[in-house]
Give the backbone structure.
Amino acid sequence: MNKEDLIKMPLEAKIVYSEQIIQEALKKYKKTAIAWTGGKDSTLLLWLVRRVCQANPWPLPSVIFINEGDSFEEILAFIKEVSKKWEISVIELKNEDILKQVTKVGDIIKVEKLDEINKRELKKLGFNENTSFKYIY
């Protein structure tokens, strides 16, 4: 289906079409997860996937919220409210090791103060222990 055809479809047809794609994906990929930012796009995706799972005997894939340390309080409250209302469990991921060095965007992170896991990953990117970088999320 091309973009023009999708744009012309009524909303209910777009929902059905989207659910068909999600159903195919969930059948094909047994291990799935939904990255939920609390924004409108990822919330819509979560709503659609939840509908598909409710219509079939399937569990909802893992729902993951990546906390980069600068989330608006309104987003955090929205995620808490919706996850309670929809009875979903949300896995929150964050890099505590990096976040303990920053208080705001633009702060400097010193590689030498990071744990071995982060140092190893940064070394792959060309950073060494004598390097620092800005927290820009």
Summary: The chain has two domains: 1-94, 96-137. The helical segments are 3-8, 11-28, 40-55, 73-85, 96-99, 116-124. The chain has a mean pLDDT of 92.
